[in-house]
Specification:
Layout: E1 15-17, E2 41-44, E3 47-49, E4 59-65, H1 68-71, E5 82-87, E6 93-106, H2 117-130, H3 139-147, H4 159-163, E7 168-180, E8 184-196, E9 212-225, E10 230-246, H5 250-259, H6 284-289, E11 292-310, E12 318-337, E13 342-348, E14 351-357, E15 366-388, E16 391-406, E17 412-425, E18 429-440, E19 449-460, E20 474-488, E21 502-505, E22 512-515, E23 518-520, E24 524-527, E25 538-551, E26 556-572, E27 588-608, E28 611-628, E29 650-651, E30 654-657, H7 661-665, E31 680-682, E32 697-698, E33 705-716, E34 719-729
Parallel strand pairs: 1-3, 2-5
Antiparallel strand pairs: 2-3, 4-5, 6-7, 7-8, 8-9, 9-10, 10-11, 11-12, 12-15, 13-14, 15-16, 16-17, 17-18, 18-19, 19-20, 20-25, 21-24, 22-23, 25-26, 26-27, 27-28, 28-33, 29-32, 30-31, 33-34
Helix pairs in contact: 2-3
Length: about 750
């Protein structure tokens, strides 16, 4: 939801469970969440952890916090938005048992359609001749590919059909028990998920040759009122996840599948052996069903404890809260991969020969510890909440510390000391303010602490006396605004990179220079990239202004926001650096980017007897701009990155195709390339007759990114249904893989075995 005066008072209890491989990062990176151009922090019941660790059946609510006031308590993580997930908690009442069983079938929306072998061979011949080279295939080859008259020497294999199946099953089961009395309440949830992959498997293998994911989740929640004023909450969470994949690896198989032409080699040779070539010496189907397996295991255990004490007997409205979190995570892999021999079948006059290609690798038997981590968190807050007639006052003093320990690294320790206060008069006027002092020990000792703040104000015009006559059709018309100075330093601080680092050179590949120009095999140390002793957190200045309105007894609700987020001191490597010093340059706090946009949400909800329905439409417009980056001097305006949208791709600008040889000969020169009719013609922007770096220009769009969506749903006597439609406009995607440069990979130049 957009940030309003109503959600300023969100208590953010922050622990952390990041993904393996990251020293200090948020888990949602891999799932591509974006909130106003930034990757949000995902907080589940006060603990940062990946969103896929949640059982959807246990989600009670999801809130989106975007403005500076609602995220300021995160300190050196407050520049990013927050995806705040609250799960179902223990509730008083008779024991309630629910079981949910789901099963389904997953399939690809669309698959590539590879060219048949004869068309691929024809186009490859054309590509070779365009480069002034001899064609590889003759007319007899085209006939053999078309007629399938010689499938072992002229194969036409649709590898997508051979490797992938059309669908795969997915199952999920959830068991929940909930209940308790006024003193103690409990909730226990168990979840099992089994998702199979799209690879074909070998019925003769005694192990799983398909990709597969099995996950077990347990979540237990206990809430106890020890006394009238003292309460304790305990949450235990555990996850066990087991994934398997072919020994050749899913990514390697899929990348090869994308690039492999239909005529590369047959699936098997005439004698039943795996087929291949001298260049393609690992048969793709063998990789999928006969390469052993890799099993990835991960385990998470987490415990949260919360304490609350009502001090109202001494000072009315005063309360004390404490929270603690400990989490342990480990990830490991069992490698049982192997590789089978492949053979190149060659047909000669009256004989068939098999040449061995590649090599056989016996099955491995190794255990790899990938990742081990430990997380500790503690928080204490003193809270005050009172209403004095028309005057409402809330205040909070908060301190927390979070420690992360990855493998054998020194622990990372972040600390926040915050104060926050809110005042409202008669439910009409709202004022909020917060101050945060945040420190992180991975920076230089005298540069570890920073100060961040946020202020906000709101005015509900509909609550004014002069608007009472509009009460029949207008229930809310709230104007609001926030401004804050936030930070982003924990996720990009690196590992003590303010200190110069050295790595050991053990003599392999050179050793150190002992005298003259002769390398000695002795071990030594070499300097890593230069340290940046002045590295600091990134800063942001964030402005948010909006309006919330409700009409016709709340049936129609409107929310609109404008935001202006300026991100400063971004870590970037200077573009003017040169390699003369002989070492890599560090990132420095020098960049500035601007994100600006607007958001609109409309909701209409109604009821006809027992039939409830709603429709919600939302849209947003986002424009970005690079305010400053340190780049080399550029004499032409179209070469400059500064002033362009953030992430703008650069390249040569296409200007149609060459229509004739004369036109191609008279075109601007590209070093090492002779254009021919039918080739792409590029613009010579500076008119010097040469296509080079001075002709690079933006090739993306300058139009703002537009997001939109519609949700429609209803409920009737326990039956619920909803439909979500969403889209995005003005998004460009640069494709850089084998699919765009098929003929440039010489390994796939397949000479037919005649």
């Amino acid at each position: 939801m957009p940030a309003t005066a109503d959600n300023f008072d969100v208590d953010i209890f922050v622990g952390n469970i990041p993904k393996p491989g990251a020293r200090e990062s948020s888990d949602n990176t891999e799932i591509g969440l974006s909130l106003r151009g930034q990757t949000p922090v995902v907080i589940v019941d006060g603990v940062q952890r990946e969103v896929f660790s949640i059982d959807p059946e246990n989600i009670e609510s999801i809130s989106v916090l975007k403005d500076a006031m609602s995220t300021i308590l995160l300190g050196q993580r407050s520049s990013r938005g927050v995806l705040l997930v609250t799960t179902k908690r223990a509730r008083a009442g008779k024991p309630r048992l629910s079981l949910t069983a789901q099963t389904g079938v997953q399939e690809s929306l669309k698959m590539p359609k590879p060219l048949p072998s004869w068309q691929y061979a024809y186009l490859l011949n054309e590509a070779l001749m365009n480069d002034g080279k001899e064609p590889l295939y003759k007319e007899a080859d085209f006939d053999a590919y078309r007629n399938n008259s010689s499938p072992y020497t002229h194969p036409n294999v649709n590898w997508y059909d051979e490797i992938l199946r059309s669908n795969a099953p997915l199952s999920r089961y959830n068991l929940n028990i909930n209940g308790g009395g006024n003193v103690a309440r409990y909730s226990v949830s168990l979840n099992y998920t089994d998702q199979q992959g799209m690879f074909r498997s070998s019925p003769g293998a005694n192990y799983n040759t398909n990709a597969r994911l099995k996950r077990y989740l347990v979540n237990a929640d206990l809430d106890v009122d020890v006394t009238e004023n003292f309460g304790v909450g305990l949450q235990l969470f555990g996850r066990l996840q087991e994934g398997t994949q072919p020994g050749a690896g899913m990514s390697g198989i899929l990348n090869t599948l994308l690039a492999l032409p239909n005529n590369a080699y047959p699936v098997r040779n005439l004698n039943g052996s795996w087929a291949g070539t001298s260049n393609l010496d690992n048969n793709l189907l063998s990789q999928a069903i006969n390469s052993g397996y890799i099993q990835d295991n991960s385990k998470d255990v987490m415990a949260n404890i919360s304490l609350r004490y009502n001090l109202g007997d001494w000072i009315k409205g005063l309360s004390l809260r404490g929270a603690g979190n400990i989490a342990i995570q480990s990830a490991n892999a069992i490698d049982r991969s192997k590789q089978e021999l492949v053979y190149r079948m060659v047909v000669t006059q009256g004989d068939t020969l098999y040449g061995r290609a590649g090599k056989a690798i016996s099955q491995r038997n190794s255990f790899i510890s990938v990742f081990n981590a430990q997380y500790l968190f503690g928080q204490v807050s003193l809270n005050y909440d009172r209403q004095f007639g028309d005057h409402g006052v809330t205040a909070m003093l908060l301190a927390d510390q979070r420690q992360t320990l990855f493998n054998y690294d020194l622990p990372g320790r972040s600390t926040n000391i915050s104060g926050k206060a809110s005042y409202n008069y008669g439910g009409r006027y709202f004022v909020d303010g917060a101050l945060n002092r945040s420190g992180f020990n991975r920076y230089r000792p005298d540069r570890q602490w920073g100060t961040f703040f946020a202020i906000g104000a709101g005015w509900d015009i509909a609550a004014e006396q002069f608007m009472r006559g509009a009460g029949n059709w207008l229930q809310q018309l709230k104007l609001r605004g926030t401004y804050g100075h936030t930070g982003n330093g924990i996720d990009n601080s690196g590992y003590y990179i303010w200190r110069q680092g050295f790595s050991e050179n053990n003599g392999v590949g050179g050793g150190i220079y002992e005298q003259g120009t002769v390398r000695s095999p002795a071990s030594g140390f070499r300097e890593n990239a230069l340290a940046n002793p002045n590295i600091s957190w990134e800063n942001a200045r964030k402005l948010d202004a909006g309006v919330d309105a409700a009409f016709f007894n709340g049936r129609l609700q409107v929310t609109a926001d404008y935001y202006h987020d300026r991100y400063e001191d971004l870590l970037q490597v200077r573009g003017k650096s040169i390699a003369l010093v002989g070492a890599g340059y560090p990132a420095e706090n020098i960049g500035t980017n601007l994100y600006e946009g607007g958001e609109l949400t409309l909701t209409y909800q109604g009821r006809i007897n027992a039939f409830n329905y709603f429709i919600t439409a939302n849209g947003s417009v986002e424009q970005t701009k690079v305010i400053y980056m340190d780049e080399q001097r550029r004499d032409y305006a179209w070469n400059k990155r500064t002033g362009q949208p953030v992430g703008m791709p650069f390249g040569y600008v296409a200007d149609g195709f060459f229509q004739s040889a004369e036109e191609a000969r008279g075109s601007a020169v590209i070093a090492g390339y002779k254009p021919l009719p039918g080739d792409i013609r590029y613009k010579d922007l500076n008119g010097d007759g040469v296509i080079d770096q001075f002709d690079e220009a933006p090739i993306g769009t300058h139009k703002p990114r537009i997001y939109y969506g519609v949700t429609v749903g209803f409920s009737w006597k326990g039956l619920e249904a909803s439909v979500l439609l969403q889209g995005v406009e003005n998004r460009t995607n640069y494709v850089a893989n084998f699919a765009r440069s098929r003929f440039s990979v010489r390994e796939f130049y397949v000479r037919p075995g005649l």
